[in-house]
Amino acid sequence: MTSRNSSAGSPSGSPYLCCPYESPLGAMTLAADDGGLKGLWLDGQRHFAGTLDAPMEPGDNAHLAAARAWLDEYFAGGSPDISRLSLTPIGGEFRQVVWRLLCEIPLGQVRTYGEIAAQAASRMGRERGSARAVGGAVGHNPISIIVPCHRVVGAGGNLTGYSGGITRKLWLLEREGVDCSGFRVPTRVTALVPDAS
Description:
Blueprint lengths: L15 E8 L2 E8 L2 E7 L13 E3 L3 H14 L17 H11 L7 E2 H11 L7 H9 L12 E2 L12 H10 L22
């Protein structure tokens, strides 16, 4: 995953290319430029295209084609390798670290916001991490599913927040073979206020 601060601007000043993708979870939109995949959003999710610093226009390129092939394999029950994609989400240093950590969560496993916070702090040479700050980074993940933010849960198995909706989060976890029987769906859901753990 390549780092690029959100204030850097579009490299060519031109719009990002985007294309639709139909999935078992509903319509999605993918966006990319010549450098790589910038976004994958479930239509209607929170923060749709929120990290992009230029408009989108319909088009296609090798990065969009590779992402569609990855999604085809994933939704067919496969376990495609993230490393075959060029992921270039736009975000600051902390978010980039968190998004890289999400990519390291194996299929069929989950991590808590607190575990990700501790790992992020370690990678950044900090003494402590903040589960709340991790919740913000996870909630603003611009590449849903491929960067698996759905694999992050709150303390004690609380299914706090998913920008695409808790029902979709559960579907993705079950599709990946996670035993969801011990998870709790909170009565009030927010993507940005995870349980601290």
